[in-house]
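# step 3/5: fold
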Amino acid sequence: MTSVHRLLTLGLLALSLPATARALPSWARRYNMNCSGCHSPAVPRLNATGIAFKWAGYRMPDDIGTAVAVKKAEEYLAARVIAAYDYVTRRGGETEADGFSVPSASLFAAGPLGKNYAAYLEFERESEGTVDLIGSLSSVWGRENLYGGFRVGQGHLLMASGGVAGFDRPTAISMPLAYAESLTDGIPLALGGDQSGAEAFLVLGGRNRTALQVLNGVVVGAGESGATVSRRDVVLTNQLMWDDAGSGIGVAAYFGRALGLVSDAPTESRRFYRLAVTANKIVNRVEVLGGYAFASDRDLPGSSGTLLETRSPTGDSYWLQGQYTTRRRPLTLFGRYEALNPDRDVASASRTRTVAGLVLPFSLPEYFRWSVELFRDTYRSAASPRRDGLATRLQVAF
């Protein structure tokens, strides 16, 4: 790959290792390029170049082993602010939300270091007033068509972590319910949540990434000493890109043991697992993507919180999304249908969600991103009235 071609294909916003982060304009300054080199149809969704750039640790695969010198701070430092308006109402007149907010303001320091390393650090102030710290260190070794490495830190390490088929980097404002909420009404694990842990990965042929993750796991309460000592959870993932546009399939399996669920035995753990598959296909300016996730918790305490009675809930979720990007402007229109049932033995526990909206990057090199999303939640239970909402976001990164 020539240097000219590399510059043409590199995007301004290469990906962060923790997927809670979005694109970083510091790399726009470094490569003097537009977002669409790595992101399409809009930030934070990734195309094939962006996915490969992420997998190789903030480098193009043919740059693995090339020394990178830290020369300019502005090529590693960035900031992002998101302004929002939300309106949510229940059928019958109850209003859950109606107002403006700043749900997130973040500072970033990230990029490649030396021949084989990279680092990521993010300070994010959330709408609740809390400050979230995310950080990771990573390494990559090998050559363009066969390389691997390690990653350790705190951030979004679950499942496919922002790879093929839009696992947790939605074009829309919201990610699918399977990643935003727990798949069962037992163990509170959202597949799109943050955890601390370590990962080893291997990329074959530049198209297939296999990873083994060891994570801290889920702790519901504290042990006898008050310490939240966790059990190690294990996650296996595989991502395959099957065309040059970035279409592909991702599969993941999460095996864990949760602590703090049994009130009279706080040090006992309970087994659970999560399985997920997602896929997408891109043809010109049209993309179709979807997924399915299944969850099972084993031998949880019943309503008393003790082991006098046990239950083993299972849950699942599926979603299907279609989107179209117009020819003249990078305006993307999208729609999604999804369903979530946190207890498959109770039909009334399920609900469906319909989402529609648009996203428009503007002000080249697209430091601004405006999005609008409408949604409707319909509940199987008669006790839960229909829920309608509107959300809009203006994201500014600089």
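# step 4/5: annotate
The chain has one domain: 3-397.
# step 5/5: archive (pending)
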